[in-house]
Amino acid sequence: xxxxxxxxxxxxxxxxxxxxxxxxxxxxxxxxxxxxxxxxxxxxxxxxxxxxxxxxxxxxxxxxxxxxxxxxxxxxxxxxxxxxxxxxxxxxxxxxxxxxxxxxxxxxxxxxxxxxxxxxxxxxxxxxxxxxxxxxxxxxxxxxxxxxxxxxxxxxxxxxxxxxxxxxxxxxxxxxxxxxxxxxxxxxxxxxxxxxxxxxxxxxxxxxxxxxxxxxxxxxxxxxxxxxxxx
Length: 231
Ligand SMILES: N[C@@H](CCC(=O)N[C@@H](CS)C(=O)NCC(=O)O)C(=O)O
Known about the structure:
The chain is built from nine helices and four strands; from the N terminus they run βαβαββααααααα. It is α+β, with helices and mostly antiparallel strands. A four-stranded mixed beta sheet has the order 2-1-3-4, with helices on one face. α1 packs antiparallel against α9 (207-220) and α7 (169-184) packs across α8.
């Protein structure tokens, strides 16, 4: 049994973000599935906002609220302090602020728009044996996501990483969202957003995301043929 345990669902981009940080830092962890559609009472107690993920550090508390942190950003900040190497937050003060901003941009704007409009629209109906909501996904992909892609393309500015020429929490947070869309639809159109499309492919192959993406593909495969054509 590992000291750390992540509670959540693999398809959650916030779970993916936490798993990527754990993997980058080579920290061992257990994973315990929590169904967001039917959260058990013990989970509601440790996640008062009723969200996934929550992390437990068993060296601090083995059950109940003790030893738990709910919210992926709080968890990643904790992991950075607990295990500073490799550093995933820039040392430079301004770069640090920029990385936190991009994490927030991904976690709020992109997650709300794309999470509901693409991922949930396509997979949630399938969990109930219904057809995917292709129209909502198509509208989101073509009319709501481009402003995020435009901003990210401009911010990336032809570089490999978002902040300070180094892999950071900004890349992990943005990639965690983009890879969710990538699982269902593919990367953003390379003709319109070449830097961002390249970034998605690079992140898709980065080792820290592999275990999570494999688990997600296994969940999706029996339910949906991917990539879903949204043209
Ligand atoms: N700020 C939170 C957001 C987490 C979040 O929104 N997770 C979603 C799943 S991707 C969730 O738990 N939703 C609960 C629900 O829809 O009932 C974090 O960074 O951990």
